[in-house]
Specification:
Layout: H1 14-41, H2 46-62, H3 64-71, E1 74-76, H4 83-96, E2 102-106, E3 113-119, E4 122-128, H5 129-134, H6 137-153, H7 155-184, H8 189-236, H9 239-254, H10 258-264, H11 292-307
Parallel strand pairs: 2-4
Antiparallel strand pairs: 1-2, 3-4
Helix pairs in contact: 1-7, 1-8, 2-7, 4-6, 6-8, 6-9, 7-8, 8-11, 9-11
């Protein structure tokens, strides 16, 4: 799992690669253990558990780009509809020597962007109409380079898998409990006792699994945003334009109605900037993104290095 891909000029990031490998290894262990607990506690339901886990995982991984597009209200657009957007992505893909992703636009006043997909050949980069209205061409280029670096580094696929496993834990638990209750009615007392124990233990195990996977993905998410900022600044050679876009987008998002922000918050890990109001101060441990100050400080250092 390379953090720059074999066919891209985006700067490689060994720190990101190491974190992606570690996160997937730990989450893999976590879910193997979780599946084992379910199989032991609900012996009769194990075929359903294995089938459900395998089927949903493959579906999510294979169709992650389309699922995310639909969830965020994005639609594919042509070069004729958005010539500047396509032209900028064309130039960046040629500069980075990477395949061009599908291009989409979401009709949303919140200025933001995201990228998703299982690999660079099957990915999508989406911007909102609010972002297109607010940014200058150089700022838009910085944001798009940031999103393309997520695709090139393949951390989008890792976040998609890791995030989905948390959702999967809840779904499997509900179905497993339902199977246990439905099959427990016609059994003897010993089996009823086992079912009762399973109904207590499984939700507790599920909560622990979800909490650990949540923290692991948050740690990776914050680092990958810094890595994408670095890669975009180095590719374009204009860290100041990206810093300007960050400042503008963050300030404008804070002015968006709280109701609209709450609808977008489930997808914060995928966005260029988190959908948070000015009053919301999420704990750094639970945040999907580094603080604006951290991101601007890093871009300032890159700007100084490029100046030298």
């Amino acid at each position: 799992m390379s953090a720059s891909g074999p066919h891209t000029r985006f700067a490689p990031d060994r720190g990101l690669t190491g974190r992606m490998v570690t996160t997937m290894f730990l989450i893999g262990l976590l879910y193997v253990g979780f599946t084992g607990v379910l199989i032991v506690l609900l012996r009769g339901a194990w075929p359903l558990i294995v089938l459900l886990m395998g089927g949903l995982f493959v579906a999510q991984f294979w169709f992650s780009d389309k699922i995310t597009e639909r969830a965020m209200g994005a639609r594919a657009v042509t070069p004729e509809q958005y010539p500047q957007l396509h032209g900028t992505i064309d130039r960046l893909c040629a500069l980075a020597d990477m395949p061009k992703p599908r291009v989409a636009v979401a009709d949303n006043d919140m200025p933001n962007a995201f990228a998703t997909g299982r690999n660079p050949e099957n990915s999508v980069v989406c911007v909102t109409t609010g972002l297109l209205r607010r940014l200058e061409p150089e700022e838009l280029e910085g944001v798009l380079a940031h999103e393309l670096s997520h695709v090139a580094h393949r951390d989008v696929a890792v976040m998609t898998i890791a995030g989905f496993l948390g959702v999967l834990a809840g779904a499997i638990t509900r179905i497993a409990l339902y199977s246990g209750m439905m099959s427990g009615g016609n059994r003897n007392n010993n089996n009823n006792d086992s079912a009762a124990i399973a109904m207590i233990v499984i939700p507790l195990v599920s909560m622990v699994v979800y909490a650990i996977s949540f923290l692991l993905t948050r740690l990776l998410s914050r680092y990958r945003e810094l890595a994408a900022d670095r890669a975009a600044a180095q590719l374009t050679g204009r860290p100041s334009a990206l810093a300007s876009a960050l400042t503008k987008v963050t300030g404008q998002i804070a002015a968006i109605p709280t109701k609209d922000l709450r609808q977008a918050q489930p997808y914060n890990a995928f966005y260029f900037a988190p959908a948070l109001s000015a009053k919301e101060t999420a704990s750094q441990l639970l945040s999907t993104h580094p603080t604006l100050e951290q991101r601007l400080e890093q871009l300032g250092k890159i700007s100084a290095e490029l100046g030298r």
